[in-house]
Amino acid sequence: MTTRDSQRGRVTAVLGPTNTGKTHYAIERMLAHRTGVIGLPLRLLAREVYDRIVSVRGPSVVALVTGEERIVPPRAKYWVCTVEAMPQDIGADFVAIDEIQLCGDLDRGHVFTDRLLRMRGLHETLFMGAETMWGAIASMVPEADFVKRERFSTLTYSGSKKISRMPPRSAIVGFSVENVYAIAELLRRQKGGAAVVMGALSPRTRNAQVEMYQNGDVDYLVATDAIGMGLNLDIDHVAFSSITKYDGRRMRHLMPNELAQIAGRAGRFMNKGTFGVTGEAPTLDDDVVQAIQNNQFAPVKKLQWRNARLQFGSVGRLIQTLEERTDDPWLSRVRESDDLGALKAVSADAEVAARATDGPSVQLLWDVCRIPDFRGISNVEHAQLLTDIYNFLHQSGRIPDEWLVGRVNRIDRTDGDIDALSKRLAYIRTWTYVAQRKGWVGDESHWRETTRAVEDRLSDALHERLTARFVDRRTSVLLRRLNQKEGLVADVNETGEVTVEGQFVGKIEGFRFRQDQNASAEEAKTIRAASIQALAPQFHLRADRFYNAPDTEIDFTEQGGLMWGSAAVGKLVKGDDALKPKVVAFVDDEAGTDVAEKVQRRLQHFIDRKIATAFEPMKKMQNDETLTGLAKGFAFRLVESFGVAPRGDVADEVKALEQDARGALRKHGIRFGQFTVFMPLLLKPAPTRLRLVLWSLSKGLQDFPEAPPPGLVTVPTTQGLEAGAWAMSGYRAAGQRAIRIDMLERLADMLRDQNTRAGFEATPDMLSITGMTLEQFADLMGGLGYKAEKGEREKVRAAVQTKEPVSAPVNTIIDKTAPALAQDVAPVGSLDGVSDDPALVPTDVPVETTPETLLETTPETTPESPVDTLAEVPETIADAPVPQKTSADPVEMEMFYTFAWAPKRPASRPQSDKPQRKGPPKGKRGAKPAQGNKTQSFSARPPKKEKPIDPDNPFAAALAGLKRD
Q: Over 60: is that where the pLDDT of 929 sits?
């Protein structure tokens, strides 16, 4: 193997490690000539060199030629190319090949070897690369002169470092897309983000990412080994996340010279550089470290080679020449390359074989098979694509526009994630490559512009996605300013949002600073320290405003929280007295003790006034000094139960009360009901809601029961409530629903006049006050201890005939007395279920003033009993004859229930356990119902002192009188 005539120009090999200025020297030498060509190993590096030369000589004389990009002005003098795309027949004065040591690369080495042996400048030829090529160049190009260049700065090994401790201006190298993304994501969380550089990126995307790193938006770069090929960046430290890589065929360890090529990116010009490992990568052996630091590596012994003198007589002959061997000891025939594999696969197609029968057809087939597999899907799919392209070109001389439009349009989309955009970029590279081939498409300029525009759009979208995913600008700004030892400027707006250096870092909620959850652990302390500088005066201003705020701006939650507007500012905790809970204020330590004490005092004042207002009747009773003896003890007992006590829990205390004591308690609004002793004014929604919170605190509950919605007479029962919760809510559970205790007492008054032993039916008034259907009422009665028997009977319709006209029939009058039974609403005349008018509040005073009054009063005339609407029907209606039903009339049936007292008695109960008194309201048992509204008179002896009459049951007194008679 011989080189071209050495008289055509001087040949120089400039060899040395990275950061020796070899590429910069080559650019200077090229610009010193009239024309020149420089071949570079990467499309990214070619673009960088092109931009540098354009900045000096202008775009009109500089050409850029790569596989997917072709910018060739009419008066081009300087050609910047990838090594594969270098024009070989333009006769340039100057020729340069960079990274010449790639002659030994198993995949691309044969291309570099060909340029080493065959490319020459008319006046000067320059080879730049590692010193490992000294012997090979000296043997293959004996006329070459050698120039050794030393590194401008030192390169030192720093061992292993965690990513969280990686110094700024570091590049972390990974050898797979997944690894690069994982490292970049970790850096975003811990360091504010990183730029991403990979060989698969388009130049536009790569340049945008590099610019972000170079201008300091991020301090970290995550890259593949693509940065080892001449990319000039301001890197101080290079860290390897792995020292193994997949080379396309197998996983292997990187050679020391490969590690040195990448590590050499650290240290720009005169700045010292360091290299090391991170993550799961093992530490480097001492001999490897010494080799990298001293630039001492094993020389290249074999250059990859492929025959360049191809013959196109037939496909078989072409393959034979491509597989030709050499006897040169320095050259090694390259393993089967991708283009040769594609040629074998495509030529196996019958139609292709039929077309490729002459020299031009075979050469066209070879040109098509050299289209790189940018997509990397599979060899079969790539071969099928090449087959289609070849058939189009051979048949019509070009690729049809409509076929190309369909494929390009499918790619021209900027939606999707990073992976989707990366795949589309790989796909468009195929069509940009096709568009660059002369004569392959109809309108070459159109398709080159179109494919380039699509690539640019995809590149911009990919850059945006990469930045959005791997860069936290707020963290980056804060950490950069912190590293620069500058004071951070913090501010708080009217809504409480806190910004530091214009970046949102959190929000003030009440008197606590809620830091943004997206902040990394490393920046959290920095953000908080900077924020507190602005928050300290804000806390004091807020405390003053809060202390002077009216009670209407403060509220408590049903779980014991204390709110100022929508912000939680504290919570209630159990105190020594159930009616005097303590307050815990939610105030950050940074706000100071003065702010915390002021907030706590204001909250304590609020809750104390809230309790005093809501429980005013009970407080008055508690402070009434006229109550003495058992009355005072019972008042204390009722205060302990927050004004509501089930009758069974205080049965003994009630029984022991004298009439005077009861009267004194009734003056404070206490009602002694059949089922509950309570203060009706405390059943309002506000006291009920507060009572549940205070009771839950006294019980030490974790989850507080919530108050039923105001205004409902009955509510569905729920399981799992703490014992006593329904009473504190102002309800009594009975069956599937709970009924409000004041309405339950009204129902008890109605039941007193019923025959609870023989059974009775529900009246419209009973259904009306409960707001229930008949079936729901039956379930309620079952919960109260009654047995409900369901029956069906023929419905009797009365045709009303009156001597005098009436305004409405009987049914209409009855319907007007009962509202819709399915609605759980309070009767008319009540506000939220309890009347605000003291005159309307049920009271027992007129009934139980004296035993004589008790015996002379019937349930129908007590204030507690509802008005019997049926009794008010005109006598003419009541006396109207019932019409006789004829055989033609349809038979209508109606459902009814009969209720009888049938309590469930426990199987056994300890003698000391005094159960709650259960039973129906004291009424008539088996006796005939009272006629009309006639008052009955009874005589009675004074009751025995040891057994006082129960004032809450007037019929007990009546029965006692009958017994004595």
A: no
